[in-house]
Design goal:
This protein is α+β, with helices and mostly antiparallel strands. It contains two helices and ten strands, in the order αββαββββββββ. It has a domain of 109 residues: Sandwich (Immunoglobulin-like).
Length: 163
């Protein structure tokens, strides 16, 4: 009786081809998770967020905003990292949630707030005493030779209550 099967040489070649195909699929899949991080200067942008230092205040009657209507958030950059914009979260203490209507990503009037400078962001909507806001800085970073806006983690922001 003759036994029919794959010769050892063909089996070895098939196994090598299967391993190469699987390795290529895993590499392409993992590449999405291991993409290059955004940088600010010569470091990863996440570490630059820790160096952001600013003072924030709310101006209830901002004459520079919408012909006098509306209000503004004034930012004074006292740190050593330029701030590109801010993310504004409004907390509702009665429900313990974030008000979706006040959720905003804003850039400053006049562009980036450099070290030692100040600027403002015009906001719309009503402003009541006791309103609580979390101001989170956004930095301009580079990723793959293009500029992107990076929002810092909420822990790097500041909370302000309008009185």
């Amino acid at each position: 009786m003759f036994k029919k099967g794959v010769s050892p040489v063909v089996a070895t070649v098939l196994l090598i081809v299967i391993v190469i195909v699987l390795a290529t699929i895993i590499f392409i899949w993992a590449k999405g998770f291991l993409s290059e991080s955004a940088t600010k200067g010569d470091r990863v942008v996440e570490s630059s967020c820790e160096d952001v230092n600013f003072k924030v205040q709310i101006a209830s009657s901002a004459s520079q905003c919408s012909s006098g209507s509306g209000w503004a958030i004034d930012i004074n950059n006292i740190g050593n990292v330029p701030i590109y914009g801010i993310k504004v979260l409004k907390y509702d203490d009665s429900t313990g949630s974030i008000d979706d209507l006040a959720l905003a990503d804003e850039t400053f009037v006049g562009g980036t707030v450099t070290v030692g400078r100040s600027s403002y962001v015009c906001m719309t909507g009503t402003l009541n005493g006791g309103d609580k806001f979390r101001i989170i800085p956004k930095l301009l970073a580079e990723k793959d030779s293009r500029k992107i806006a990076y929002t810092c983690p909420e822990k790097d922001g500041q909370t302000i209550v309008y009185t």
